[in-house]
Amino acid sequence: MHGYMGKILRVDLTAGTVWDEPLNEAYAREFVGGSGLAARYAYDMVTADTDPLGAENPLIFMTGPLVGTAMPSAGRYSVGALSPATGLWGEANSGGFFGPELRFAGYDGIIITGKSACPVWLSIIEGEATLYEAADVWGLDSYTTQKCVRELMGESRARVACIGPAGENLAAMAAVMNDHGRAAGRTGMGAVMGAKKLKAIGVRGKARVPVADAQTLNALAKAIIAGVEDDMAAASIRMAGTAGYVDMALMYGDMPIRYYQQGTWDEGSNLSGILMLDNYQNRTLACYRCPIACGRETRAPSYGVDKVDGPEYETLGALGSLVLIADLEAVIYAGHLCNLYGLDTISAGATIALACELFARGLLTSADTGGLEIHYGDAAMVHRLLEMMARREGFGALLADGSYALAKRFGAPELAAVVNKLEVPMHDPRAFSAMAAIYALSPRGACHMQGDMYGVDTGQGPAYELGITPGERFEVSEEKGRIAARQQAWRTLYNALTLCQFQNPGVERLLAALNAVTGWGLTQDDLLPLGKRILALKRRLNLRRGLTRAAERLPDLLLQPLDGGTEGNVPDLEPLLAGAYAEYGWDLETGVPLPIP
Ligand code: SF4
Hints:
Aldehyde Ferredoxin Oxidoreductase,  A, domain 1, Aldehyde Ferredoxin Oxidoreductase Protein, subunit A, domain 2, Aldehyde Ferredoxin Oxidoreductase Protein, subunit A, domain 3, 22 helices, binds iron/sulfur cluster
């Protein structure tokens, strides 16, 4: 089977056993890879009652057909499981080198079930998998863990995915970390790993991914790399990282301020990617075979840190504008703490911002926080709360359960800026109305990574051949809902491949590359149905877990008009949803998809 290693590693942590299983080729052909293929496996393994932190919840690491091939920017992996944050299907993906190395070690993915009695880590070298006790690495931060595991493996070039203290302490926003500071951040996959007492997975190998037509793929890869020079969006990300979007985001009102309640903030420009480039950047970082190199290595000298991964735009928003911190170095350091502890910066920052808001409203007092005064703009407090959250210390134990639980605990569930219990990322649907439908319909709760309509409507990576066309950013109509659904399906396919969404070589070249790798002989007409099939499967899984049509709504805070770049716009969700449902073939009343074709 071209494009796949043909093998899945199975791990039962309760029994302490590992074994190889052939890849289910039918699943791979229908659900491709990444979170699509992971969800297909999970669909057979979870019920309405499966506890996300229980032994039965499978934790699935999965690559896609393009990973580890000559295709540029295809070095990602997905990790999926039922989410302890949402109770629904959870997934996150990450770049770096772990995904390709897993394939070189001989596997398309790893399915982990059970729970170990004591902490363990997993070594995979050249197709040989072994579990080891992790007493010496349990408790370490994510950077030290990666270094220790490489030493224990005796493989200086091994790639390691691991959890930090946040995952060990089952924080709902715990990430899986790899390649130093790369994070599979969202939906608490680190907590699932922590509940299984699995500290780390180290991988090393030299196998090659079988490719149907290497000559064509190599020619396409060359053309795609050359094409990056002409891609304005890629060039901008290359120059200033995703942080380069800050100024534009502030202009559009896309970057949320003061817990999604403020339209303008003059100090926001202090968080600009250009300032970061000039004052704090050490160098750029690239994932496996990526010519864009959006990653940044920065420094925070005032905090004694000379090497920080990031921060990304999302981190600058969640730990900057959302909590009114305009000190760029303090935000860089906050991002560093998240990397060390293994926290998703979006959910961690948003939960702390909610605590600031509850405190400002008098719903939370120092009597609840062990004497802490939690105010917007207090960088030292944010740093302290991140550590307390990761370690579940004092008030941090309440923060560690995430925004929805925190707001509910203090009698104000309507204040939680969440969709299906997942914190809203740093793209405000009042700035780009179609994002309202994307958040409402995302299988993992509010997700900006599978349906970047803020990109489409600013002309970044449209796919005209697929009917994904830029338009007026405030438009709400059934047609706009259809376009949003197509973009969500398209990015869902990207995620399954798994290809970075900053790599936009055009539909024709991407299709040719996929066919060159797999030999599938797909046409353009096959692409969106693949994404829609994956979305329908995840939806069926979520319906089994109790998802309701009524949950597809924006949080109350995001339905208040703001001044500034959003110009008072508040998206009307219903026409957008009607269009999206029609595009997907889902019943508008029940939300149930048609049978999977
Ligand atoms: S654009 Fe950035 S995230 Fe995407 S593959 Fe390249 S370096 Fe990685």
